[in-house]
Amino acid sequence: MGVSRIQKFKDYRNSLIKEEAPDLETPKSSSNIDIGSDPKESTSTLPIDQVMDKMNETDESLFLKKRKRVRILQYSLVVLGLLLLTAGIIVFAVLVF
């Protein structure tokens, strides 16, 4: 059988590592986090009420945008209909006279 992909990866990884290659160090973070602080005080979770309110606002804004789009489409169709009616009357008047 052939060489497994795990063995191929190990060989590839070993070929990348060279003895004269410099060691890469992770940069030290410059954040202002107090290491001695309680981790419970620094959570990033939001209250469920705030999340639900934001979702409701999003749903309402989408509804209003859709409503506005429908209203613009209705007005455009009415104006287009009036223009076609006017053009029809003009063509009819030219043909009759």
In short:
The chain is an all-alpha fold.
Brief descriptors of the model:
about 100 residues, elongated, mainly alpha
- Estimate the strand proportion: under 5%
Largest sheet: none
Counting DSSP E segments of at least 2 residues, the number of strands comes to 0
Q: Which descriptor suits the 3D outline?
A: elongated
User: What is the succession of H and E elements?
Assistant: HH
Oligomer: single chain
Radius of gyration: 35 Å
The helix fraction, in percent, is 55-70%
Textual characterization of the structure:
The protein is an all-alpha fold. The chain has helices at residues 5-16, 48-96. The protein has a domain at 47-97. Helices cover 63% and strands 0% of the residues. It is elongated and about 100 Å long. The termini are far apart.
Detail the topology: elements first, then pairings:
Elements: H1 5-16, H2 48-96
